[in-house]
Design a protein that fits this description.
About 30% of the residues lie in helices and about 30% in strands. By secondary structure, it is of the alpha+beta class.
Length: about 325
């Protein structure tokens, strides 16, 4: 009879070592397996991307737009309207005139394959804080980088720098720092990030941007239309003043001409309106451009507490609760 039972369920013959309850042992074992599997899931998901996600106080964030106006001294007015699916992919770059690795990464950016009908816009932040060798940066542009990307940068490099050259941000969402490749090459890393695109659908978005210069007074007006966004999205628009090219042969990285230089930032208080202001002049020449962009944030902090946990951690948390429940149940019995 005993042999027949063992043939059906050989676990009946397994003793309970040191008085351990088998139900409790089973729950603990399952919890351990879930922890191991969750770590593998994290590793596998990390291998699917080549960037660090930009961190904000909200869950998701990005930067969109790119409608531009040439601030040419020969012009007195300019107006442009652009639909969301026409906006360029924004690539924000943190750089310096002494940074040799910046030349390498910028050449890689220049070699990317851009799909037909699409475009990119480069915005170069030049280091300013404690800087003695780079004439292009400003306190305002450095502050913008640190406030927006400093936390992500600090967590992504061993030196914990908030502004490390070279760094690249795609669509305000994805950070590539230094020259360390994640895939087979930096080109694949950047190409993958470029093709990822914005996390939100912009097909029904649009922007209108206008400028007039009357008697030396610069007046800008704008309208940003995002009809599909819910009230949980926050929009923070701004005007970027970008110099097309600056000449500085004294740079330590061997370059003489530097492009896409961010010279000034004007924060806007609403998604539509008008404003008059003076902006930082070009380092040299007459090649400034005003660009309308906006940061977007999605706030899901009001969702239940489990939503704040990453998926694998949620599994671990629930497994531990189950283990505690079974343990208490066995003790009561």
């Amino acid at each position: 009879m005993l042999l027949d039972k063992l043939a059906i369920n050989p676990l009946l013959f397994v003793p309970k070592p040191f008085g351990i309850n088998m139900n409790r042992f089973f729950v603990v074992a399952v919890t351990f397996l879930l922890v191991v599997m969750s770590q593998q899931t994290v590793a596998q998901s990390d291998n699917l991307k080549t960037w660090n996600d930009v961190i904000s106080e909200y869950s998701d964030t990005g930067t969109l737009g790119g409608v531009s106006i040439p601030l040419n001294s020969n012009l007195t007015a300019y107006n442009d309207t652009m639909m969301g699916d026409e906006w360029p992919s924004l690539i924000e770059v943190y750089t310096a005139t002494w940074c040799t690795n910046c030349v390498t990464t910028q050449n890689t950016i220049d070699s990317l394959s851009i799909p037909e009908g699409e475009s990119i816009m480069k915005i170069h932040y030049h280091r300013f804080i404690a800087e003695t060798q780079d004439p292009f940066g400003s306190q305002k542009t450095d502050d913008r980088w640190i406030d927006r990307y400093g936390t992500t940068s600090r967590l992504s490099n061993i030196y914990e720098y908030e502004n490390l050259a070279p760094s690249k941000i795609f669509d305000g969402e994805r950070l590539h720092i230094g020259t360390t490749k994640t895939s087979e090459s930096l080109e694949i890393d950047y190409q993958t990030s470029l093709e990822k695109g914005p996390s939100i659908d912009v097909s029904n978005f649009s922007t209108t941007f206008s400028w007039t210069n009357i008697s030396g007074v610069n007046e800008f007006s704008w309208n940003i239309s995002t009809p599909s966004l819910s009230n949980k999205y926050t929009i923070e628009p701004m005007i970027l003043i970008i110099e097309d090219e600056g000449y500085f042969p004294e740079g330590g990285n061997g370059e003489k001409y530097y492009n896409h230089i961010l010279r000034d930032i004007i924060s806007l208080s609403s998604v539509d309106g008008n404003i008059s202001f003076d902006y930082n002049v070009a380092y040299d020449g007459d090649d400034l451009t005003a660009v309308l962009v906006f940061d977007w944030y999605f706030d899901n902090q009001e969702v239940g507490s489990l939503a704040a946990l990453p998926f694998p951690n949620s599994i671990i948390f629930l497994s531990v609760l189950v283990a505690i429940f079974y343990s208490r149940n066995e003790n009561e019995q």
